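Title: Prediction job returns without error message
Component: structure pipeline
Severity: low
Priority: P3
Assignee: unassigned

Description:
Job completed but the reporter wants confirmation the result is attached to the right record. Sequence as submitted:
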Amino acid sequence: MYHQEILGHFLAKTSDIHRYVWQEFDINPDSRCQLIADNLAVLRRYRNQADYDDNFPLLSAIATIALKRSQEIIYNLNNL
């Protein structure tokens, strides 16, 4: 049931894994973890909007912002 161990955490293959990962970064006081949590939350809002809203104004601009936030997440993960 557990996929792998990362940073001392066993990650279960469940539908709640995204929430679990976000919460682990959100509760960590390290400023890099806080940035990761914030960016993950924004990306989730964008994904939900793209998936469920019939009208998504400025989609191209949002996609550019999402890519930048994704790059910030990767940068911060690499520097933990």
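Comment from assignee: result matches the submitted record. The helical segments are 17-27, 31-52, 59-78.
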